[in-house]
Every structure is written in structure tokens, then in C-alpha cells.
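User: I'm writing a short methods note and want a consistent example. For Condensation domain-containing protein, I'll paste the sequence; you return only the C-alpha cells, no commentary, since I'll be parsing the reply automatically.
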Amino acid sequence: MTGTGSEVDELLRLLRSRDVRLEVRGSRLDYDAPAEALDAGLIATMRRLKPDLVDRLRATDPPDPGLGNGPGPDDGGSGPTDGSGPDDGGGGDVQVLATAPASFGQARQYRLTVDSDTPQMLTVALRFALRGPLDRPALERALTDLTVRHAVLRTRYAMRGAEVWQEVLAARPVPVPVRSVAPGQLDDAAREWAGVPFALRVEPGFRAVLFRPEPTAPTGGTGTARDQDRHELVLALHHGIVDGWSAQVLIRDLGELYRAAVTGEPSGLPPPAADFVDFSRWERGYLAQESTRRTVQAWADEVRGEVAPLRLPTDRPRVAAATDAGGHVSATVTPELVSAVAAHAVRRDVTPFVVLAAAFAWFLHRLTGAPSVPLTVPVANRSDPRFDEVVGVFAHAPWLVVPVRGAESFDALVGRTARATWQVLARQSVPLAVQSEALGDAFAGSPNRVYLSVLDLAEPVLHLLGIDPVPAEDVLLAGARADLTWHVRPTPDGGMSLVAEYAATLFDLGTVSGWVDRYLRLLPRLLAAPDAPLPRHDEGEPA
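Assistant:
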């Protein structure tokens, strides 16, 4: 049996990510692979797709990088190259334990990945700088137990007609290869490794690696004990299986499962009350309810006449493109400004998010002239307590439509933003696509989006027995999911970080940097005079 071209492409991406090299010898397909890179299920897939792989490799001249006939890197051993490859019998098929239609979030993230030229933008990658004696076998057991506990970590996808389905696989050991990296090369190594896209029809969207800095001792030395106790753990997860809340649950559970693996004691984690397949089924029932449809329609009827997708001023003409390589601008919100935002929120009986979003809406109104500013904003979508400890992509990014025209002061705009936020929470379990359809033709397909993410969760902290606690560090990968995305989250010093992700096909770095700077100057100005008429020019500009 042969496969589709996309299935072969996904398999080749997976083999690249695991440093597997293929070679065609006559009618044979041999491989060279690091230890633990191939399992029985993957070999079975290679065997099934052997004719397509052979044709693809024979047509590649020169061979694709990583798929030629050279030796693979030494990650702790190499696989057989003597003919015991995927076409020689043995092995076994992957066992599928459960199937169900994918959730809306899963299906959207899967389709974006398949259609994208930059699928790595759908990967969430976290780094942890481990300092202390690491028990690597215990870490592998803990990661394996993590996939046992959270079935979404061992879920792949299949197409049934035009519908995306999830397939939950039987648990199997999670390998954690160790890779040496030269001093100063860790950032690039982490981005390169995490940036290899997942082959979601073949493998689950979860993998791990340990980077070990090369010893700093003089030539001929063996390095210091400190060198031996330094590792960088990197976890890569497809966005179809994780959101911000889920990352907190995952990292907490990993720490407890590692403690259990090291000590031999049972973990203190209670059995999950549900799994993600349960949520997918619940979601379908909720969206089929007449009350849900009425809620969405009432909101759409209220805002439809005043709202259209934002048209930000661009540096280059807009062209039709499924993806964008993207760029990033980083800035810091000082602890003093964060405190001022929080104090104003308390006085107005709203959340800090509402204050930040109201200022952002006014900034975008000045930039575009839009009478109502539509933003997409993340919501947790965990109204059912059964799903509090379940890992998966629950979060939606529904429309927050802020009516700006006619607002007499910042306080008035804060009140309008608060009302719009309550409307978002009332329909937080309704996916963006359903809301866009209700808004009409202007929002059909993939409308221009400006995304505002204000998280009240700090980066998760990994606690491994015998190792210093370490907060996660994001690995920023190339790709833009919207015209403009602002990620704001707290920092340990009481401030906030602001990372602006933008579509590089539309905007220059200097343009977005300027917008960030203008917003950070506008915000304290609004807070200083919340009852005054809203400013229509930046400070220092002529009126």
C-alpha cells in the first residue's frame, strides 16, 4: 500500500527530526539512525510507504540533506544498516486505543500546520536550564509516565473525508537523546531542534531532548563537576495539544513523576477526572445546543454594523499567502507601570487586562480610524471543573469588539471594554470560526487579525528532585499567526514582558518597534488623566 504525497512529506520530516538517514540500494531501503530514534510503529510506517520513499529518494539529486547515505550523528549509538530496515519484516503496528473527531482547536491547528510553509510556528517549545545531578533514566521514565497520564501527548491525527480525527496511541517509552553543544551555540541549537515540524499523521506532537554544553576545561581536560551537572532540557509540543494552562499542569506533573521515578515511591498525583477526548465530545454537544446558537447570534447582531477586520497601515502591499516567516520585537513594562495599571483596575472594578486592552484599542483606533476595534484574545475555556487538570488545547481566541467611536474619556473606554470582555466570557467555548461566520462575509476565511494575549500566569517552574528549580524559557520560533500579535505576561520582578510578533511580509522591524514604543508612552498618559478627553496625538506631536 502506498501513501499520499503529504503523508510521505510528513514521514520525511519526522525522520529528519530524528536524524534518520535513508539509502536506496537496488530495491532495498536501508537506514542509519541514532539509538532510540526508530520504534516498531515507525518502522512499520516506513515499510508501508517504502515504494513512495524509494521513488522520492531516487528522484532527489543530490539527496535531500539528512536523507542521504552518509553516517548519522553519534547520539548514543546508530541503527542497523545491514538490511534489517523497514522493508525486511519484523516490528509491529502502532496500537490505536481510541479515536474521536478532533476538537475545533485541534482541527484548526492541524490544518494550519499542513497548509503552512512555516509549520514550526505551531510548535510551543520550552527550555529549562538544569543545574544539578540529573538522573536521565528517571527523566525518561517520568516523561513516559507523563504521556500515560495525559493521553493527548500520544495522539496523532487522521483524515476521514474532510474531517480531522484524533487517534490516541498506546503508551511507549519516550526517548530523551543527549546532544553536546559548543559554548555559545545553545540558543541556535534549541531553535533548530524545536523548529523541525511534527509529522502529525505519523507521530504525536511531543518530543524532548537534552543539550549538554561541551566542557570548558582546557584541551586534554575532562571538564569540571559543574560542567557534568549542566543540562538544558527542551520540550517541543504542537499547539494542537497544549495551551498556557496546560503547560502549567504538564510541568508540575513532570516534577512529581520525576520524584517518583527517582525514589521508587508512588506519585502523589490523583487520577485525572477526564481526558481530552472527553472534552472533544463535550464541545460538540455544547455547540449543537440552541442556546449556544442564540448567544452567538445575539452578540453578532449587536456588533455587526460597526465592525470590520482591521486594516493596519502596512509597509508593503498585502499579498495572498498562507503563512509568514514573521518577526519579533521585545520590550519591558516596568513594575511601576504595571502597579499603576493594577491600581486603576481596582478603582474601576475591572481586571488589568481590561485596562491594557482599552489602551490598545485606542492606540489601534488612532492608527486605523476604525470605529470599533476587533481583537482576538485568548480565553481559558475551562468552565467545566472536570477539565481543570486535563492537558490539551482548550483555549480559544474569540473576537473582542471594542466600540471606540464616541468614547469621551479613557474611563468611558475602559467601561466599554469591560462590557465587551464580559461578552467574550459568555461565549468563550465558541470557536473563532463559528463567531466569524456569524459576523458575515467580511470575516469569512482568514480575516486580518490583531491578537492580544495578556496572561496572568508566570512561566511554569520545573521542580526536579535534587536540581535547582528553574522557570521555563520560551524558544521563539519563526512564523506569524496574525498581522500583529502582542504577548504580555508577568515577570518575576513585578513587571511584564511584551513580545510583539508581526507579519514580516507586511511590516518592517522599525515600524513595529515604533508602535510598541508609542503604546508604552500612551498607557501612562491615559492613566494619568482617565477623565480627560482621549488624546488624539502622541506627546510632542502638533495637535
